[in-house]
Amino acid sequence: MIDIDRLSTPALAYLGDSVLELLVREALILKGFEKSSTLNKEALKYVTAVNQCKAFSNIESMLTEAEAGVFRRGKNSSHLNIPKSASPSEYKIATGFEAILGFLKLKGENNRINELFSSAYPDLQA
């Protein structure tokens, strides 16, 4: 069995990216968006590195010691391909945020994921 605590940060962030995308898509649909073009446009308000960085600032003080450790690992990862749309700092924070979500998903802590997501993106809550 894989030791989740030793799993690579890029792997955690990869999974966390999907977790975040699914949560955002679900929230947008529950808010009444139905057309794919509108859904894609709205989702970009939440899933870009710049916006993930902003969302993370809403939950930073809520992190457990373990989550903060995963965040630091993600933020300090050297395997980053920074897009032109974000600063290196923003992208590193976004990667750390995604790593937390991937970590929690593998731990089966869906309630904690939902708690952090609700606090990170309060405007997406019904």
Care to describe what's here?
With 126 residues, the protein is an all-alpha fold. It has one domain: Ribonuclease iii, N-terminal Endonuclease Domain, Chain A (Orthogonal Bundle), CATH 1.10.1520.10. It is built from six helices and no strands. Helix 1 (9-30) packs across helix 5. The chain is globular and about 40 Å long. The mean pLDDT is 92.
Examine the coordinates and then state which fold CATH places here, giving the name of the CATH topology: Ribonuclease iii, N-terminal Endonuclease Domain, Chain A
Q: Which series of helices and strands comes N to C?
A: HHHHHH
Average per-residue pLDDT, rounded, comes to 92
- Supply the helix-strand structural class: mainly alpha
CATH superfamily: Ribonuclease III domain
How many strands in all? 0
The CATH architecture would be Orthogonal Bundle
The major β-sheet equals: none
Quote the distance from N terminus to C terminus.
38 Å
- Oligomeric category: single chain
| Count of domain modules | 1
Stretches where pLDDT falls below 50 for ≥5 residues?
Answer: none
Helix content: 55-70%
Outline type: globular
* Count, helices: 6
Radius of gyration: 14 Å
Our estimate of the beta-strand percent is under 5%
